[in-house]
Amino acid sequence: MLDFGFDKLALIGAVALIVIGPEKLPRVARTVGTLLGKAQRYVADVKAEVNRSIELEELQKMKSQFQTAVSDVEQSVRQEVNSATQALNQTWSDVTADGTSYEASLQTPTPEYRHPKKNWRLKRGATPLWFKQKAGVKRHTQSGAARVARFRPPGLNR
């Protein structure tokens, strides 16, 4: 942008005061300021639009590179799966061609269902006392009188 020092700005102001006059100078200065602001906003919008278009082009390039990489990986995976399937089919045909029945030896009897016999009292009793005290879990019941006696200040015994 243009480089104006203080002395150049003072000279421009003095010339404007003489040419325009003191009555119209504030109105002209306001108008010039508004026009400069609009011009700066327009330039900023154009810069932002150019930056967005550059970023969009970069993103499209990255997208195309990513798609080519994905297609390459997909092809290699398909080739590996196909080769593994062919090897498995070959092995299966070799095994079944022997004539022996492996199916009977592979089947095992299903186990009978047994209830796990969970004991909630045992689970509750497995909690440590320090955790119960910290969590505020009651370990045993107290009568109302015992509770009052427990929380009564020591100097008020009746």
Question: Keywords for this structure?
Answer:
mainly alpha; 158 residues; 6 helices; 0% strand
Please give a structural write-up.
The chain is mostly helical. It is 72% helix and 0% strand. It contains six helices and no strands. The longest helix has 73 residues, at 25-97. The N and C termini lie far apart (93 Å). Belongs to the TatB family. It is a single-pass membrane protein.
Concise summary:
This protein is mainly alpha-helical. It has six helices and no strands. This is Sec-independent protein translocase protein TatB.
Could you say which overall geometry the principal axes of the C-alpha atoms support?
A: flat
Helix content: over 70%
- Number of E-state strands: 0
Average predicted local confidence, pLDDT: 83
Largest sheet report: none
Show unreliable segments: none
Give the topology.
Elements (H helix, E strand, L loop, with lengths): L5 H15 L4 H73 L5 H4 L13 H6 L3 H7 L8 H8 L7
